[in-house]
Amino acid sequence: MRVLITGAYGRCGTAIIDNLDDSEDYEFTYLNRSDRSSEDPYGGYDTQLADVADYDAMAPAFEGQDAVVHLAAHPDVDAPWPDILQSNIIGMYNALEAAREHGVETFVFASTNHVMGMYEEEFAPELYELGFDLTVDHTDPVRPDSYYGSSKSFGEDLGRYYVENFDAPTQFYSLRICSVRSSNYDHPYGDAEYGVENGEFERGSDAYERNVKRLKCTWQSRRDFAHQVEQCLRDTDVNYDIFYGVSDNDRRWFDIEHARDVIGYQPQDNAEDWERPPS
User: Residue 100 pLDDT more than 90?
Assistant: First the structure.
């Protein structure tokens, strides 16, 4: 299967590279706004350079592809509207239009938990405790918490429009990704340890513990994320659907049973198995 990855060198893209690039089942093309040097861990890959907001620059990468995993976006929840407009609105339209133009059948879209972020705003921090009684699934009303979350909700809707009105794409998978981290912080203590290393707070402080509890809810390990993407690429039945991207954490408030049932998502990791950060 020929697969295009947009935004290939972000946290999610590199998780796919780390876990799937060596697979004989896929021939990957990487699209990114900038290349990586040969000294970089992700340097040396064949990369097509383009901004997804520039249709003429990015559309040729879609030619001959069987699937696209569209990760490219402005990822900052606090980003102002002009930044969101270019990368997340125009960029999403361009990706779908390029898929239509070049007949790319499968479209895996990196949506976000921030499409439902106001549930967290309403119930945090009690929400982060073990046993809190809330489960949000794909049928619950959308409640975005930002321009960023709203732009991803737009992307989900635009994807539905395309699969129901054009010849391609014919399959659209929205992954409402929760918390995928870089390889150095790929554990439930990652955000807290990052905060300590950057002088934001001290280990053991209230802020540290809050970060640990939240990530124990929302963490999706890099291998679980790559596995979920692969299950979408392998699927032949879905026309349009929404799935939450989160590991099998005891504290999670997002449903994964739908992903288990429909695409066979079987996460290996549970944040509660970690009692301390790696040494």
Answer: yes
What would the two tokens of residue 184 be? 């150095």
d(CA 109, CA 94): 13
Q: Is the pLDDT of residue 147 over 90?
A: yes
Q: Beta-carbon neighbour count of residue 192 at 10 Å?
A: 26
The string of pLDDT tens digits covering residues 188-197 is 999 999 999 9
122 burial level (CB within 10 Å; 0-12, 13-18, 19+): exposed
| Burial of 40: CB neighbours in 10 Å, binned 0-12, 13-18, 19+ | exposed
Every domain of the chain and the residues it spans: 2-182+221-273
261, two tokens: 């049932």
Structure tokens at 12: 């999610």
Q: What is the pTM of this model?
A: 0.97
Question: Could you give the CA distance from residue 107 to residue 96 in angstroms, rounded to a whole number?
Answer: 8
Helix axis angle, 222-234 relative to 11-20, nearest 10°? 70
CATH number of 2-182+221-273: 3.40.50.720
Mean pLDDT of the chain: 97
Give the per-residue pLDDT at 278: 94
Cα within 13 Å of Cα(177), Cβ side: 25
CA distances from 79 to 4, 24, 82, 85, 87 (A): 26, 38, 8, 10, 11
51-78 confidence digits (pLDDT tens): 999 999 999 999 999 999 999 999 999 9
Q: Which amino acids are annotated catalytic?
A: 148
Three-state SS at 90 = helix
Give the Cα separation of 81 and 116 in Å (integer).
Answer: 19
